[in-house]
Amino acid sequence: MKISLEIIIKVLIGTVLGFLFFLLINAEARIYFKKFFFSIVYPPIIKVSQLNDLDESIGWKTKRNLHLIQFLKNKKFSIITNDEGSRISSKKLINKKKYEENKIIYTIGGSQSFGWGVENSKTFSYLFSDKINIFLKNFSINGAGTVASYLIGKEKIKDKNAIVLYGLWADHLNRNISPCLNSGIPICFPQPFVNMKEEKIKIVSGSLKAFKDEVLFYNSKLYGESEEKIKSIKYWNESSENRKKIEQKYLSKFLNDKVYKENSLLFVLKKLNNFVQKKNGKLFIIYIPNYLNFNDMKPISKKLSLYFSKENIVLIDMYDVFKKEIENGKKIRLDDGHMNEYAHKLVFNELYKRYLKFK
User: Fold this and answer.
1) pLDDT digits (tens, 9 = 90+) for 280-313
2) How far apart are CA 71 and CA 116, in angstroms?
3) Looking at 58-153, which runs of residues are DSSP E strands?
4) E-assigned strands of 220-341?
5) pLDDT value, residue 183
6) Is-contact 194 202, C-beta < 8 A?
7) CA–CA separation, 313 and 255 (whole Å)
């Protein structure tokens, strides 16, 4: 018995319509299908080399001319950079006539400043740039701390009278003093870090393999474990609970030394501030208090806020704002701990208010 082409087509159409109807009435099925569809069309970024280049003088540097799509849960966002390595919204030519002449906003920092998880046009620095009509260059590097931010700023900030936005995420206090525990995923380590005993910035140079080997060797000596043991610890792949256990076992030496961490941060910030001042620029520091859990937020220390006040650095401390929003039931984080669009808008609002006072 031969089955006609017409019957086959009808069966296929019926199957497709039945599947679509199933998705229509089943919300959970829609979510799973969306995840499946986007995971095929936009496979997740799994390699550091897709995002960053290893740089001998700075550490990790965001690649130039990127055009990638990243999928986070059931949401996608684009990662586009220009030929300088600055994050942009699209490859279309920008009409610079709309912007104020002879002035540029530079954004430096880690993934929170980069705007990981949201479109570029939804980041606090883009919203700020669009509001005051000053051209933006976002050179933030995913995984970077204060040290890498300072070094990239020193290389990229060429203009006088620049506005410099540095997103000080709470975890930068840790990133500034030690290579990342998870040597298997070096993007979480900003490469350069502060050696306060010698009062200098240490930079690991060479190939990616040499970099990973040196971090592995350094961690082995630092934590008193074999390189094989250190290599097996996948800190960034663990749950928040397991990360805390790993931190207590291997990082408590540093994490509990608040004075050392703050002195390391100030050591770098003084260099950054002096550099910006020499160019007649203005430094704005946005303190992002959370790490992975906004419920564990802590306000910035008095020592740091006093320094910012003394040096005429504008500090936008988001602790009180975020705390109030959370208490009111607002969601301000993505599933991976980064700020969502709403949080970026909150940062922009506070930044703009402070900017008007110093304009």
Assistant:
1) 999 999 999 876 566 667 788 888 889 998 888 8
2) 11
3) 59-62, 67-72, 75-81, 87-88, 104-109, 135-138
4) 282-288, 314-317
5) 39
6) yes
7) 26
Given phi > 0 = left and psi -120 to 50 = alpha, else beta, which region is 178?
Answer: beta
- Report strand pairing: 104-109 vs 163-169: parallel
CA 307 from centroid of its chain's CA atoms? 25
pTM exceeds cut of 0.85: no
> ∠ CA 226-210-266 to the nearest 5 degrees?
85
- The C-alpha R_g of the chain, in whole angstroms, comes to 23
CA 203 – CA 190 distance, rounded (Å): 10
Q: Which residues of 193-214 are buried (b: 16+ CB within 10 A; e: fewer)?
A: bbeeeeeebebbeeeeeebbeb
Q: What residue has token string 């290389």?
A: 155
Two structure tokens written together for 35 = 């995840």
Torsion of CA 344, 350, 353, 354, to 10 degrees: -120
- Per DSSP bridges, beta strands 282-288 and 200-202 are unpaired
Q: What is the pLDDT of residue 225?
A: 73
Q: SS3 string of 156-209?
A: HCCCCCCEEEEEEECCHHHHCCCCCCCCCCHHHCCCCEEECCCCEEECCCCCHH
Strand-strand pairing, 67-72 and 59-62: unpaired
In this predicted structure, the answer to whether residue 38 has a pLDDT above a threshold of 70 is: no
Structure tokens at 94: 């920008």
Check residues 184 and 198 and name the one with the higher pLDDT.
Answer: 198
